[in-house]
Design brief:
This protein is α/β, with parallel strands linked by helices and about 90 residues long. It has helices at about 15-30, 45-50, 65-75, and strands at about 35-40, 55-60, 80-85. It has three helices and three strands; from the N terminus they run H-E-H-E-H-E.
């Protein structure tokens, strides 16, 4: 099973954000180094980075350019790829 790593700013997080991060850490326990993971609706990418620390590749999709920009700026990992796309419409 996965393990949790306390974020530096966790003391400043609200409860919903802490629970959301917990779910990503829990899910990362099922990811192997051979897995390619899709994170659909990745938001600002902190969960994608958690998954990328375990997976072969992570592809993170969001329809908000500001979220993709924030992810690329703040949650970089060598195997983490951000994609701007409206998945409901299949449009970039």
């Amino acid at each position: 099973m996965g393990y949790a790593v306390m974020a530096e700013s966790e003391a400043n997080m609200d409860a919903p954000t802490r629970f959301h991060r917990f779910r990503y850490h829990l899910g990362s326990g099922f990811v192997t180094p051979e897995d390619i993971v899709l994170d659909l609706g990745c938001g600002t990418g902190y969960g994608s980075q958690i998954l990328a620390e375990k997976a072969l590749e992570v592809w993170s999709y969001d329809m908000e350019k500001s979220n993709i920009d924030a992810g690329e700026r703040n949650h970089y990992y060598f195997n983490l790829n951000y994609c701007l796309m409206n998945l409901e419409k299949g449009e970039i």
